[in-house]
Amino acid sequence: MNPLRRWPWFVGGIAVLSCVGAAGVFGFLHQGYSHLRFPLAVLGAAQVRHATLFNLFAFVLPGAFAACLAIQLRRDLPASGWACRIGAQLLLLAAMAFAAQGVVTLDLRHVDDGSTRYHAVAWMLWMVSFICGAVAVAFGTRGHPAWWGYARFGVAMAALSLVSVFLLGGWIGQPLAQRMAYAAWLAWVAATGWRLGCEREGNGQAL
């Protein structure tokens, strides 16, 4: 089999492993850090050791890989209407915003301004773009049964992101709620790689 026909699976998998691996490794390296008490982005704050490496593997690389998948998704979507076009562009924007969180990092000395404010903007842009993009793609592919399973999964993950941050945050804590939102997006990234891989194989299998 031509390896180039299998790259979407690998791209999606590498994106997930990069983010999850960075969270686990760098969280372990910093004594006193708890995933239940601190946001993930604290590991990439300006005052934290190894912050650049963490931001690279946790945000920049996964965002870049997801952007590649979003670009290919736009090409492979079966519908050419406005919903699919806008949805794919929003999903690309979400991937770029996710990567931007590793560029405009937290500043623990200035939690309400400076780069911390820009980091918060990137985070919100990522979430809003992901939610709206997933819904738009689902709307645009509603007449294509082979894509409907993937589209519904995307909507479910977008809904989980929304619910976890804005509804569950007060119960389980914002650090854990944010991680649930990240996990939902990473699940969508992996699913997109799988769906595009199926399209490459020409079998059009849904999730």
In words, what does this structure look like?
This protein is mostly helical and 207 residues long. It has one domain. The protein contains 7 helices and no strands. The protein has helices spanning 7-29, 51-76, 82-100, 115-140, 145-166, 169-172, 174-201. The longest helix is centred in the last third of the chain and has 28 residues, at 174-201. It is globular.
What would the keywords be for this entry?
disordered N terminus, mainly alpha, 207 residues, 7 helices
User: How many structural domains in the coordinates?
Assistant: 1
Radius of gyration, whole Å: 17 Å
Number of strands: 0
The main sheet comes to: none
Anisotropy-based shape: globular
Number of helices: 7
Decide which structural class fits the backbone. mainly alpha
Mean model confidence by pLDDT: 89
Order of secondary-structure elements: HHHHHHH
Which percent band covers the strand fraction? under 5%
Unreliable spans: 1-5
Distance between the termini: 22 Å
Summarize the amount of helix as a percent range. Answer: over 70%
Question: In a nutshell, what does this entry contain?
Answer:
Helices cover 71% and strands 0% of the residues. The chain has 207 residues and is mainly α.
How is the topology of this model organized?
Elements (H helix, E strand, L loop, with lengths): L6 H23 L21 H26 L5 H19 L14 H26 L4 H22 L2 H4 L1 H28 L6
